[in-house]
Amino acid sequence: MRLQSAFLALSLLTTLTSAHPQEGGAIPAPPTGGSTDPSYSCPSSCTPPSCQCASTAIPGGLSKDKTPMFVTLTYDDSVQVELFETIMAVHNRTQNSNGCDLPGTFFVSTQYTDFWLVQRTYGLGSEVACHTINHFDLRNMSAAAVTAEIDGCRKAINAFSGVPASKLTGFRHPFLSFSPTSMEAVQKAGFEYDSSIVLDPNTQAFWPHTLDYGMPYNPQPCTNCPPGPQWKLPGLWEIPMYALLDKDGKVWASMDPIINPQLNDYDKALDNLKKTFDVHYEKKLPMGLYQHISQLVAWVAFGDDKRKKQDLLTAFFAYTQQKSDVYFVTNQQLLAWIKKPVPTDQMSTFLPCILPATDKSNKEICDGIDNNGDGAVDEGLVLSCQITPTSNTRSCFGCPAVNPNVSNPVPDHGNALKAIPADGCPNLGSWDPAAGSCLDLKRPQAVAKSSNGTQG
């Protein structure tokens, strides 16, 4: 599925959400040391899908040669026009092994966010997760304040972006800074997973796991945290963020590939990304490429070196695709596989490509997709919301009277459209907010790659 026609339509729309500096996109320091805690103990009774011990072993006892290689692409902070166009333009230059464009996981903070673009991101096959409303450091906040930030974010995204509540399952702490209070709040709020802890893939090659019996490592940065094995939060998964490595195999960065355009060091950055991938591939440990939205937009969307930077990511994607068993997945898809591992030769059934509902016979509904295939997305159905003289957004679900905030995450929005059900629509149906019902719209059929990487 290619999105050029959608981009053309999008460029014709009035851009309402101005580019704002990120509310605090400081890049966290890479992990120092790779110590693990020998006191960690997890019983054999801890079994998927409800419980998973922290382990360096491949889930399900699969051998490396039968295990798919997973890569996750995650993005933090507010979603704006520059972000959406840039990321989607990069993602659709490479196809996944299942025949779809590469998906991502977007940890959205709602301040400055264009809610309609979040809806589009979800509709095009990526995962939407939560990153608070205001992007504050949660370490020294009360449990009530933390809950208001994280749960308010989820409520606002659900109400104004039309993402089903049951699909908003993930959370990442701003600044990757957390405390026992904040982690407990994530658990109590009902999120399935947190993804905030950075590990060294050389020495802490732990697969995603639940926190029923704590962790075999001592997470940092953390305020007033007990030793890792004492962090017992039953049912909450942790999807570690694995540090990037340099070409010598040493820790290079936690997030955001380090690129200095003045030094023209794109080849160096590409070599480092390849090295990181090689280390993960040798273990079949999932790899992640984690980026702040502001950093990505700054070094991809603007400047004379735009093409070099887009080509850098495309070259890295192409390098990974030399292996026929590589799958780019969302965090939710990664967890689904860990809960029920299947070998590579069953991945086409486990992870089929489901393309957006686009066909000339379809009715155009406000779902973030060009349903009738005429090159325009949700034409005539999206509301432009000027909330204050300096704050604006777009939404299919009414304009909020004030900006969504911790005290009022779903302000009055004069909603004439119907909110999407908590579980979305069954059997790949599409929600029509005007009719308040699910529709069975026609979808194109994906063509997956064969084992040699060609279409077939």
From TrEMBL:
Top-level taxonomic group: Eukaryota
Domain NodB homology, residue spans: 66-193
Signal peptide limits: 1-19
Record GO biological process: carbohydrate metabolic process
Entry keyword set: Signal
Xref: PANTHER family: CHITIN DEACETYLASE-LIKE 4 (PTHR45985:SF3), PTHR45985
Disordered: annotated span: 20-40
Record flagged with keyword Signal: yes
MF GO annotations: hydrolase activity, acting on carbon-nitrogen (but not peptide) bonds
SUPFAM superfamilies: Glycoside hydrolase/deacetylase (SSF88713)
Species the sequence originates in: Rhizophlyctis rosea
InterPro entries given in the database record: CE4, Glyco_hydro/deAcase_b/a-brl, NODB_dom
Keyword field contains Magnesium: no
The name this protein goes by in its record: NodB homology domain-containing protein
